[in-house]
Structure formats: structure tokens, C-alpha cells
Design goal:
Helix content is 38%, strand content 25%. The chain is built from 23 helices and 20 strands. The strands form four sheets. A six-stranded mixed sheet has the order 6-7-8-3-9-10, with helices on both faces. Strands 16-17-18-13-19-20 form a six-stranded mixed sheet, with helices on both faces. A four-stranded antiparallel sheet has the order 2-1-4-5, covered by helices on one side.
Length: 563
Amino acid sequence: MKTSEVLNIQNLSISFISNKTKIEVVHDVSFSICKNEILGIVGESGSGKSVSSLAIMGLLPKRISEVTKGSIQFEDKDLLNISKKGYQALRGNDISMIFQEPMSSLNPSMKCGHQVAELTKRHTSLSKSEIKKEVISLFDKVKLPEPERVFNAYPHEISGGQKQRVMIAMAISCKPKLLIADEPTTALDVTVQKEILLLLKELQEDTKMSVLFISHDLALISEVADRVLVMYKGKIVEQGNTSLIFTSPKHSYTKALFNSRPSTNYRQRELPTVSDFLNDAINFEIVSDEERQKKHKTLYNQNPILEVIDLEKIYLSKKGWIGANSTFKAVDKVSFKVYPGETLGLVGESGCGKSTLGNAILQLDKASSGIVKYDGKDITDLNSKQLRSLRKDIQIIFQDPFASLNPRLTVGNAIMEPMKVHGIGKNKNERKEKVLSILNHVGLLEDDFNKYPHEFSGGQRQRIGIARTIALEPKLIVCDESVSALDISVQAQVLNLLNSLKEKFGFTYIFISHDLAVVKYMSDQLMVMNKGKIEELGEADKIYQNPKKNYTKKLIDAIPKGL
């Protein structure tokens, strides 16, 4: 191991054990991280990047996984032969980790400050008052607003970006020599994501620590890493200097990762996926401005399928036990129209009101005031029977399909259940035939009918969610952050699927996301929301090319562009 290296991994192979059979998931991986360096590991889910990082931390699940070959050397320590006590002294102190999902990593029953203080207490000899002072200083360093308030707040009382900053504060509290950041910005808004990236870069420059930054987004990695290694199916397929990987990628998989993200310069008819690149089957067709204008002329000569007029949603909150009620306008006098066959893109940061607006349209959370017209009729005061009938016409595709599917129901039964409720199909056999046809439409197999949700990947579960939605033959579908948690290539597959289903069945979409690049690609019109209000509304390409509001410019500037 060279003196300039803080970590050296040689010929690492990791296997998982299933039914007494060893399945190798990481194959002969070798790489090193130098002192004061940020190394980016990029690859899709299942590529082995997170499993490799868990091996470094000694956190591979016992009994079902093992390192079958290789070495992991951290400074002068052999991590594969270190004692349990030795690892406990190392974790949090010399090697720290930021996990992908801060809400599941933070203890919901403990105040944020106390969680960071607990780690500081374990690894330092500071007094209670000194620890509190140190934690508040850390919160200030990671640019948390009102550090004193956050110290005494529970995780649910702060935003997603703030929770991630608490996790970063915890990770750097003992001034580690190596920080592992595993997808630390995946579920965050593009603006918050950019802030977190800048923060990590700044902290690394201040503390001179080494950082292993893991992501599925190559463009994102380019903004933070000095060197990049690309993993595919448990192997390293390419590695080198970041600018070199970007300017002249050699492996087709690297090229695929970079090109699967929607272009912001032109509009492809179909997004290329990893398999398209690997099989040399890319559709290079571009949608021309003339074709788009002609389509829009036809779209907007119709009567709207949905009309929202002066919609407001106000929430009441009480400060303390005896404090006065205060009001918060989540949606503030919003008005717009959606036309049959259109995709209206709705974009904005977390807390801007976009999901609240979607719920109000769906009548899942009644608006405080205003009108929602569907097919020319006001739907804000429907009785339960009328609402049930409306549910068939207006459907939603959720962000997390796993949470929205019953784990005890097979996929086929989960899709047939709402069909039966809404009287689609004369009998069980007819419904089953329709479901088998739908599974084929969304790129799944007939055999998947009898499988359970846990037997599928994230992208496949999203397809199941889409199948369940379209089985009801809806006219209007609200896609609420339905691709935000997916890998870049899987995201491309799902976006292509949504567009092809729209053409085939004549669906109308309200496409909600915090990712402006994705929304622009999907949308005819683009609606930008900020603090409950419509900031900007117009043709998607025109808004992107010439944004009139500073807020929209900020969202565009935050999109990872690559080098």
C-alpha cells in the first residue's frame, strides 16, 4: 500500500448465500483512494457499488453474505481480519458513512442534536456542555438554518435536505479520514442536491479527508469527483480521471449511463437505455419544432379535460399547547387548464405545493377554496358514490410502488382488485385475460402474474404500479414523482413506457417531479411552482430556453450537466 493511499482494495469478491448456494455479486474489484481525494463510483442498482462500501464498513449482513476473496487495507489495518471491537473503534471515528435515506437512518424518537451528540460522546472525552457546543458548531458548518432549533427538533420536524445535513454533521463529527457517501442526494430536489454537493466539496477541502462518493448518476459524479470508476454487474468496467471519462468514455456502458438522461438541448423521440447502447439499437430520431407546434395546435383547440380555478389549500397549525392557531397556504390561488392527450409538467422544490395540488385534484385532500372541473363539471363537492365513480377516470402513479402494493397479494390479484371494484370485466377469467395483456404492454411477463411485489426490482415494481393504474382505463393520470427514485437507465425505460402508453391509449398526464430535465422531456406545457403559487406557465421548451423568473433559472442551473 502506497503512503499516499488511505484505502486499498485488491481483488475483492463478495458472495450472497441463497438456499445454501453462493452467488457472487462482486467480482475481482480493485481500487484505491488517496489522501485528500474524492473518488466517485457510478453504476446502476445491482452493480455492486453499495455492497462494496458495506464491506469496507464491515456491515455486510451476517450469515447471508461473505467476502470470498481479496483484501481491504485501511492505512495499516487489514479490515478483513480486524476484531469486532477494533471495527467499533474505527467506525464513526476514522471511517464514516452517509446513507441514502436519512429518514430511515435517523432515530425518529430522538432529537437531531442528541443523535449527533451520542456519537461525539462515544468517540471523544468532551463534557456534556462542550459536546452541545460542538454539535451546534457542526450544524452551523453544514449550513443548517437555526442550528439551536434543529438541535432540539425531531427528524420529522425538518425537511429532507435538512435531515441529510444532520447526517453529514454526524458523519464528520469525529473528523474521519475516509467518508463514504452512498447516494446521499438521490431523493433530494435538484437545488438541494446542488447545495449538498457544494457542501461536501467544501468540507472535504477544509478537512482534507478522503471521500468515496457513490451514485447512479454520472453527470452528478462529474461535479464532485477527482477520479471515477464505473461498475457494471459487479465488475469495474472503466476507471480514470473524471474529465477523461467524460470527454472520451471507452466502455459502451459508460456511454449509456451518460446518454440515458434526457438531453436539455434537443428532444429525442425515445430515450436510449443501457440495453440500447449495448445492442447498438439506439433510436436517434429527434422531434422537430414544427412537429411539436402542429401537435400543440390540435391539442389546444379542444375543450379542457381539467380546469382548476383559484384553488387554495390552507393548513392550520398550533404553536405549543396554548399557542394561537397559525395558517399555512400550501396552494395559493392556483389556476390552469389541462387538455385531452396533453402532458402538463409540474415542477418545483419540496414544499412548493405540487403534491398537495395533485392530491386536491384527485380529491384525496379537499381544497380549502376554489373550483376543480373535470369534463366541465365541478368535482369539489361530490358524495362518496360519485367520488368512487370519478376514481376510475382520474388515477395516480405513486413515487414508491412497493409501499403502495399489498405485499400479501400477488401482482395479478393486486391489479384485478380495483378492476373488480369498478366493474371492469364480466368475471374473474375476463379480468385475468385483461391483466395478462396489460403486463405485456408494460414490459412484464405473463408469469409475473403469480409473483409477489418483493420478487421484483424497483423498475419492475414501477411497471406494476403503472399496470395497476391503466387497468382501470383512466382518462387522466397524475404521475407523482414516479421516476425520481429510479436509476438513470431504468428511469429512461419507464419514461419511454409512459409516452408509448399515452400514444396507445390516449392518456392525459399531470407529471409531477423536482427534476426539471425529466419534466421538460415529458411535457407539452410546463408549470413551475414556488411557495404554493404558479411561478411560470407555458410551453416546456420555451420556458427552458428562455426562463422569465429567477426561480426557474435557479432550477435549470441546478441540473447536473456533466463536464
